[in-house]
UniProtKB/TrEMBL annotation:
Ranges that cross the membrane: 9-27
UniProt keyword Nucleotidyltransferase, yes or no: no
Classification of source organism: Eukaryota, Metazoa, Chordata, Craniata, Vertebrata
Name listed for the protein in its UniProt record: Alpha-1,3-mannosyl-glycoprotein 4-beta-N-acetylglucosaminyltransferase C
Pfam families assigned: MGAT4_cons, MGAT4A_C
Length: 465
């Protein structure tokens, strides 16, 4: 893992944010170019430069790609856009090399159908050409069929496109070599993101020493489906550094520019936090269990020991709810920004309402009817164990009426009561004869305590997409 030290915040962060807000996420990135001679093994994204030259004479859109020429060392993505690009950048380590095992984990933990929707891009970001050649040969021998199928591409960005990496600002009182390491790392990732911008709908960032959970793509797709209709910049599938951070691909050019703009200011994991904040996602949206685990023992920085592990990681496939796309509503007095959506996912967030009264409800209306096998609702949290639903029932309904924004079912069937703040029932499709269009949590008695709905999980027996 290449960014792992905790650092204290300093005032310069606020200055940078204000600067960016004033610029409205626009900057001019002009790279003086020399005519490309179309050398074999080179691919051009708005063609690169004689040297990294950054000017601000005119403002250009942050959404435009960075002018840089890549060397394609192996493979070539197919023309059809995939669902997910998995990007990782790798450099030569003084101790250990986990890149092959990381690539192996990605492919082995994916099903045949999942592999149709995945493309892996490896950025060899080291300037030792002999090391790059040996890595390419090794990967090509072990994963030739994936390379031929367009599922794996290896790229390299020549040194001439990199900005100055010597004599940089020593923020956080880091030694010069560490400043150079983390600054170059930001540029490595900027070039990787820039290359991947048009390959797929979504992009997930990994490191070169990561183990994957089985069928991670299926889980990611379920989570994205459950967030349909909500605005997000980053979804997190690991709590470590920048492992498992998911983005919309259309945001990658802006993120690449952002990393380049502040490449010498702070580590990449800090920059990622500020990026999503500037795009109006204040809090992290992290999902559990984690889908990716750090497996490296030695850091790529000086080969230092790095034993960090994600204790929320589960390698084997697990029972992730489908949570079909739905409209959520409530008549309860919601506390601050603990909205309904925060209960209808596997994030660490939750719905929180002030003392509910008898007849209050939390309502879920699906976009279309579903056969539901299992429903599980958990209320309260470890630190607020009394903020549970003390008296309530769960109902399912059919026969929708009303307009698009305010649909309700006319007929409800009571499935059961909440017990100690929780509800769980399986084999619902064997007990309920109709396709379910609504799920309703109904408060049956006034309570003084506030109500936290920590999670609502719904499993269907039909496709949710």
């Amino acid at each position: 893992m290449r960014c792992f030290r905790k650092r204290s915040a300093i005032p310069i962060l606020g200055i940078l944010i204000v600067c960016l807000l004033c610029m409205n996420l626009y900057i001019e990135d002009e790279y003086v170019v020399e005519e490309d001679k179309h050398v074999r093994e080179s691919s051009t994204h708005n063609l690169g430069s004689d040297r990294f030259i950054h000017t601000i004479k005119n403002l250009s859109n942050f959404s435009s790609s960075i002018n840089v020429t890549y060397q394609i060392l192996a493979g070539m993505p197919l023309s059809r856009k995939k669902y997910l690009t998995i990007g990782l950048s790798s450099v030569k380590r003084k101790k250990g090399n986990y890149l092959i095992e990381t690539i192996k984990s990605i492919f082995e933990q994916s099903s045949y159908e999942e592999l149709k929707e995945i493309v892996v891009v490896v950025h060899l970001a080291d300037f030792d050409s002999a090391w790059c050649d040996s890595i390419v040969q090794d990967i090509s021998r072990k994963f030739s069929h994936h390379i031929i199928a367009g599922k794996l591409t290896i790229i390299h960005t020549p040194l001439e496109f990199y900005p100055m990496l010597e004599g940089l600002k020593r923020n956080y009182n880091d030694p010069d070599d560490r400043v150079k390491f983390r600054s170059k790392q930001n540029v490595d990732y900027a070039f990787l993101l820039n290359y991947c911008a048009n390959l797929s709908e979504y992009y997930v960032m990994l490191e070169d020493d990561v183990r994957c959970s089985r069928n991670f793509l299926t889980t990611i797709k379920k989570v994205i489906t459950s967030r349909k209709g909500s605005n997000w910049v980053t979804l997190e599938f690991s709590k470590l550094g920048y492992i498992g951070k998911l983005y919309h691909s259309h945001d990658l050019p802006r993120l690449a520019h952002f990393l380049l703009m502040f490449y010498q200011e702070m580590p990449c994991d800090w920059l990622l936090i500020h990026f999503r904040g500037l795009l109006a996602q204040k809090d992290a949206i992290r999902f559990k269990p984690s889908l990716f685990q750090h497996m490296g023992y030695y850091s790529s920085y000086k080969g230092a020991e790095n034993k960090l592990k994600d204790d929320d990681f589960e390698e084997d496939s697990f029972d992730i709810p489908d949570n079909p796309t739905a409209i959520l509503s409530t008549n309860m007095n919601v506390f601050e920004n603990y909205e309904t959506i925060k209960a209808y996912s596997s994030t660490e967030e939750y719905f929180w309402a002030k003392s509910p009264s008898s007849g209050d409800f939390y309502h879920i209306t699906f976009e279309r009817p579903h056969k539901i096998n299992k429903i599980k609702v958990c209320t309260g949290t470890e630190d607020r164990q009394n903020d549970i639903l003390h008296h309530g029932i769960l109902e399912v309904g059919e026969r929708l009426v009303g307009n698009k924004k305010d649909k309700k079912c006319t007929t409800y069937l009571r499935l059961g009561d909440f017990n100690n703040g929780n509800f769980e029932m399986e084999n619902i499709d064997h007990k309920v004869l109709f396709n379910i269009e609504c799920v309703r949590i109904l408060v049956t008695k006034n309570q003084i305590e506030w109500l936290i709905i920590k999670s609502i999980s719904i499993w269907t027996t039909d496709p949710v997409n």
